[in-house]
Amino acid sequence: MTKVFIDGSAGTTGLRIADRLAERxxxxxxTLPENLRKDTAARKxxxxxxxxxxxxxxxxxxxxxxxxxxxxxxxxxxxSTAHRTAPEWVYGFPELSGQREQLATAKRIANPGCHASxxxxxxxxxxxxxLLKPDVALTCFSITGYSGGGKSMIAAYESADRDxxxxxxxxxxxxxxHKHLPEMQHVCGLDIAPIFCPIVGxxxxxxxxxxxxxxxxxxxxxxxxxxxxxxxxxxRLVHFDQQTxxxxxxxxxxxxxxxxxxxxxxxxxxxxxxxxxxxxxGKGASGAAIQNMNILxxxxxxxxxxx
Length: 307
Description:
Number of helices: 9
CATH class of the largest domain: Alpha Beta
Order of helices and strands: EHEHEHEEHEHEHEHEEHEEEH
Strand order of the largest sheet: 8-9-7-10-13-12-11
CATH architecture of the largest domain: 2-Layer Sandwich
Strand content: 15-25%
């Protein structure tokens, strides 16, 4: 039995991971009673007893949790922002070249951010292939369901007397200081961070990340982008689909409830749209964490996932 502890199991991501693991055989889920959930001594004992620990905590608490581990046995999958650019941590996006092999033996895994997952999937392979240069100035806009804001945002959107402003999409991170920007730049090998425009909409879950390109910024043709994506994404959890059939639209909720990600390419020879669609709670959070755990355990990486 693999002993698993979720530190921060009361949050949206933690609850999703716990629900998924409750249905799995071979998993012994370490739980703490409610009165000890934030008790440092109890958490320390659980962290050190676990084979795999998921951290579903704010950044500072995640850093503290890692400091409580006193053995070289416990493997950590951190869903916070705290360690995503740390050199001693493996970035948990297996579909990138070489990452799956590193993840198989890692003791410290940084689960990607939801918006960042889409941006990285779209941009990193193109930089590696030389189709985009590291000094390219990119723009990214991303629309997400309100579950991405956690319990407080879910409560606000689902309140019977909610603010009328919640009826329409709302852009945020207006100061261009979104917490996902460092990993978006770092993992893709970019010299500068993109202009990033995240938007929350009035739907529970789903995400659509779009990176527009002018032909002058592309060192190749759109067909070259398609070729890179086809070669890069050969698995079941990230797939390239050249054509979509939604009457000329792309719904951000199309992959709600799923753990896979769809990559698409649209536009024309002069103005190109790269888009990733997935569930912000799936491939953007708990689904990705479970995928990384499966790789650590050496089991089929889609085990327990929906696609």
